[in-house]
């Protein structure tokens, strides 16, 4: 018996993790694992943010952890890549995956936003996560 192949869900080129919650296989687990990587980066570099891969599976997209450094003299901010990870295994990908900018969304989420997102996922009835209808 042949299995029916389901076409992959497309990922918007400017997607963030928050935009993809409905398509993730296991949203709480995925976001928790991303948050672990962000916390490791923040401990090492003092900052952390994440971009999702836009060419993979929307159910478990790869992701790129970065940090931003500001030059004290010029105030110029520079983004540095920490590591890229598989969205399905959360294992680090080879460095060549980072280099292709077209692989990654230009939009990022910082560690604070990802922490808030997992809070909303774990407790969807909390007042801060409810949307109010102004009719």
Offer a few descriptive terms.
alpha+beta, single chain, four-stranded antiparallel beta sheet, 4 helices, disordered C terminus, 135 residues
User: What is the helical fraction, as a range of percent?
Assistant: 25-40%
**Biggest sheet features:** 4 strands, antiparallel
DSSP strand tally: 4
Spatial strand arrangement across the major sheet: 3-2-1-4
Q: Tell me which oligomeric state these chains represent.
A: single chain
* Share of β-strand residues: 15-25%
Whole-number mean pLDDT: 88
Work out the helix count: 4
Q: Rg, please?
A: 16 Å
Order of helices and strands: HHEEEHEH
- Principal-axes shape call: globular
Low-confidence stretches: 129-135
What separation lies between the terminal Cα atoms? 52 Å
Label the structural class. alpha+beta
């Amino acid at each position: 018996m042949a299995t029916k192949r389901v076409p992959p869900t497309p990922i918007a080129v400017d997607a963030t993790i928050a935009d993809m919650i409905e398509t993730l296989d296991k949203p709480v687990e995925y976001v928790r694992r991303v948050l672990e990587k962000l916390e490791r980066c923040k401990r090492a570099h003092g900052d952390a943010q994440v971009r999702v891969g836009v060419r993979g599976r929307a159910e478990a997209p790869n992701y790129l952890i970065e940090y931003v450094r500001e030059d004290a003299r010029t105030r110029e901010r520079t983004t540095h890549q920490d590591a890229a990870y598989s969205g399905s295994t959360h294992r680090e990908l080879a460095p060549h995956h980072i280099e292709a900018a077209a692989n990654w969304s230009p939009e990022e989420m910082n560690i604070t936003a990802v922490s808030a997102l997992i809070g909303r996922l774990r407790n969807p009835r909390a007042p801060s996560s409810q949307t109010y209808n102004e009719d």
